[in-house]
Amino acid sequence: MTTTSPTLAGQLGAESNSRFARLSAGVQALRTRAANTDLERALLIVGGILMPLGVLLIILGWQGASHTPLPFEQNSYLISGGILGLALVFAGGFVYFAYWQTVRIRESREQARELTAALGRLEALLTGGRVEVAGQPGAVNAGQFVATPSGSIFHRADCSVVSGRNDLSSVDPAKTKLEPCRICTPLD
User: Fold this and answer.
1) Whole-angstrom Cα distance, residue 34 to residue 14?
2) CA of 143: how far to CAs of 122, 125, 153, 167, 176, in Å?
3) What one-character DSSP code corresponds to residue 145?
4) 95, 50 contact by CB (below 8 A)
5) For the whole model, what pTM was predicted?
6) What value does the mean pLDDT take over residues 87-114?
7) Which range in 65-69, 88-92, 131-135 is most confidently predicted, on average pLDDT?
8) What is the mean pLDDT of the chain?
9) Strand runs (DSSP E) across the chain, as ranges?
10) CA quadruple 52, 56, 58, 59: dihedral positive or negative?
């Protein structure tokens, strides 16, 4: 049976933490908004180049075929100008459609996030206070009065002075010697 020394275990733990930190940083770098914006821009540019280039090849193929009366001479113009041009128009259209879809999906995700946040705010207003989010300690009802541990005044739970703080405690204004806040005026 083998045992590891405390220093070796500490080194292994530190190495594991640094590897985890590097992995986390690498994963976060994979999906950033900047990368999505670059992809969107590339799709827009490629689609914007391929479609007009295809149309130009179709026009050049038609012009070349229209100036020769012999059908066997027109085949090369048909293949090089017409079919290749048509393929570029379709490819450019699909790439531009992919750009349009990525923009649509990004906007719908942003709207979903905004809608979720608005519904959370609405829920907080309807329930009369802060809604506990992800196990956030210190969530209190709006009808309660709160104070910080070292504070000398008490506030309404929705006061902007104490919003976002986790170290609040409930206070009964009749039993406390704390002064009321002048911003939220809790006793009015």
Assistant:
1) 32
2) 16, 11, 17, 18, 16
3) E
4) yes
5) 0.45
6) 92
7) 88-92
8) 78
9) 145-147, 153-156, 169-171, 179-180
10) positive
